[in-house]
Amino acid sequence: MITTSGLARSFQVEGRRIEAVRDVDIDVSAGESVTLLGPNGAGKTTTFRMLTTLLRPTSGTATVAGHDLLSDPTGVRRRIGYVAQGGGTDGERRVFEEIELQGRLYGLSKGEARRRTGAVIEQLELTGLDKRLIRTLSGGQRRRLDIALGLVHAPPLVFLDEPTSGLDPQSRAALWRRVQTLRSELGTTVFVTTHYLEEADAYSDRVLIIDHGRIIADGTPESLKAKVAGHRVEITVPMDMVRAAVAVAEGVTDASEPVVVGDSVRFQVPKADVVIPELIRALDFASVPTKSVQVVRPTLDDIFLLLTGRSIREDAGSETPTPDGM
Amino acid sequence: MIRDTALIFQSQFVLATRSLPRIVLELGQPIAWLLLFAPLMAGVMTNTPGFLSGDAWMVLTPAITIYMVLMSSAFSGYALLGDLANGVLERMRVTPASRTALLLGSAMMRIVQTTAQSLTVFVVAWILFDLRITLVGTLLTLAVGALLTLTLTVSSVTLALLTKSEPIFTTVISTCLLPLTLLSGILMPITPDLAPQWLYILSRCNPLTWAADLARYTFIGEYAFQPVVIGGAVLATITVLSLWWGTRTFNREIL
Question: Which helix or strand (DSSP H or E) is residue A236 part of?
Answer without folding.
Answer: strand A231-236
